[in-house]
């Protein structure tokens, strides 16, 4: 059975889904996206992703393709049509197809392009990597200055993942002015003396939806949270490290630039937060 995807109001087999070569998402990376996880056929943190999408669109003066209720209906229809139990839904909105290449934004007559597709990931919540932890390297953060907007400009994050692979690691943490900003596709944390430390929100990182939920659960569980930048040296000397994202939930980091973090095995804080996040998110899934 071919995957059914959504393009501008139509549900189509993936091989029939087409977007113009003049689409600004393709030519200019003039597009924003969201990735929402699906567990047990239900959406995790949908409201958070929809709210962030609306913000990304607003910040770029881009029209919304439809209402939040319509977006929810499309997500649910894709889950049903693809019989998705565990996996991800990718959503992208671009500024549309002006019919030619031009740097200037087109007028309101050009409608945004909306694309959504499912990615089946059986065992997503049971990812064996969470039991052993992952290794990261640090690289310079040379991305643009509005990382709070979730644009599809993912060339440097892709390069970062390739640099990590080449170095025998799993991912990269990005460093700017001596401090970790975030991971290539996730938010970064360390734990020291029982305190969870993660960079404060600003234009230099994506405001992770998983981050917001995990920090809320941590505070509710009386864990101490400190939102401030930290260095790679602090990460190496930390008791634990981990990252969060919609696709990995809470993922322990056991090595930074070849140095073991703590005992070099996943720590109790990350394990506990992963468990709470998965339990609470499943309960609240829609
Ligand atoms: N990435 N920081 C960056 C740079 C990201 O790309 C992501 C998400 C996050 C975590 O945000 P959230 O918790 O809302 O997923 C932080 C997605 C999963 C991706 O690009 O596939």
From TrEMBL:
<dbReference type="Pfam" id="PF01063">
    <property type="entry name" value="Aminotran_4"/>
</dbReference>
<dbReference type="GO" id="GO:0004084">
    <property type="term" value="F:branched-chain-amino-acid transaminase activity"/>
</dbReference>
<keyword id="KW-0808">Transferase</keyword>
<dbReference type="InterPro" id="IPR043131">
    <property type="entry name" value="BCAT-like_N"/>
</dbReference>
<comment type="pathway">
    <text>Amino-acid biosynthesis; L-isoleucine biosynthesis; L-isoleucine from 2-oxobutanoate: step 4/4.</text>
</comment>
<dbReference type="InterPro" id="IPR050571">
    <property type="entry name" value="Class-IV_PLP-Dep_Aminotrnsfr"/>
</dbReference>
<dbReference type="GO" id="GO:0008652">
    <property type="term" value="P:amino acid biosynthetic process"/>
</dbReference>
<dbReference type="GO" id="GO:0009082">
    <property type="term" value="P:branched-chain amino acid biosynthetic process"/>
</dbReference>
<dbReference type="InterPro" id="IPR036038">
    <property type="entry name" value="Aminotransferase-like"/>
</dbReference>
<keyword id="KW-0032">Aminotransferase</keyword>
<keyword id="KW-0663">Pyridoxal phosphate</keyword>
<protein>
    <recommendedName>
        <fullName>Probable branched-chain-amino-acid aminotransferase</fullName>
        <ecNumber>2.6.1.42</ecNumber>
    </recommendedName>
</protein>
<comment type="similarity">
    <text>Belongs to the class-IV pyridoxal-phosphate-dependent aminotransferase family.</text>
</comment>
<dbReference type="InterPro" id="IPR043132">
    <property type="entry name" value="BCAT-like_C"/>
</dbReference>
<dbReference type="InterPro" id="IPR018300">
    <property type="entry name" value="Aminotrans_IV_CS"/>
</dbReference>
<keyword id="KW-0100">Branched-chain amino acid biosynthesis</keyword>
<dbReference type="GO" id="GO:0005829">
    <property type="term" value="C:cytosol"/>
</dbReference>
<keyword id="KW-0028">Amino-acid biosynthesis</keyword>
<dbReference type="InterPro" id="IPR001544">
    <property type="entry name" value="Aminotrans_IV"/>
</dbReference>
<comment type="pathway">
    <text>Amino-acid biosynthesis; L-leucine biosynthesis; L-leucine from 3-methyl-2-oxobutanoate: step 4/4.</text>
</comment>
<comment type="function">
    <text>Acts on leucine, isoleucine and valine.</text>
</comment>
């Amino acid at each position: 059975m071919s995957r059914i995807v959504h393009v501008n109001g139509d549900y189509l087999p993936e091989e029939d889904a087409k977007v113009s070569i003049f689409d600004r998402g393709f030519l200019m990376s003039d597009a924003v996206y969201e990735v929402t996880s699906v567990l047990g056929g239900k959406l995790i943190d949908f409201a958070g992703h929809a709210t962030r999408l609306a913000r990304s669109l607003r910040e770029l003066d881009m029209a919304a393709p439809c209402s939040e209720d319509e977006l929810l209906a499309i997500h649910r229809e894709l889950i049903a049509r693809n019989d998705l139990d565990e996996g991800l839904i990718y959503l992208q909105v671009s500024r549309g197809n002006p019919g030619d290449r031009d740097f200037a934004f087109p007028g309101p007559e050009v409608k945004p392009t909306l694309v959504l597709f499912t990615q089946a990931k059986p065992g997503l919540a049971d990812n064996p990597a969470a039991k052993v932890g992952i290794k990261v390297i640090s690289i310079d953060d040379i991305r643009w200055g509005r990382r709070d907007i979730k644009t599809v400009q993912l060339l440097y994050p892709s390069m970062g993942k390739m640099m990590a692979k080449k170095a025998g690691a799993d991912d990269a943490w990005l460093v700017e002015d001596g401090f970790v900003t975030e991971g290539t596709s996730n938010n970064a944390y360390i734990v020291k003396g029982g305190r969870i430390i993660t960079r404060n929100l600003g234009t230099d990182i994506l405001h992770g939806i998983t981050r917001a939920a995990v920090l809320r659960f941590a505070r509710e569980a009386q864990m101490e949270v400190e939102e401030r930048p930290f260095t790679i040296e602090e990460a190496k000397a930390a008791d634990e490290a981990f990252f969060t994202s919609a696709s990995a939930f809470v993922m322990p980091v056991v090595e930074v630039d070849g140095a073991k973090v703590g005992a070099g095995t996943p720590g109790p804080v990350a394990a506990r937060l992963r468990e709470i996040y998965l339990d609470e998110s499943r309960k609240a899934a829609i």
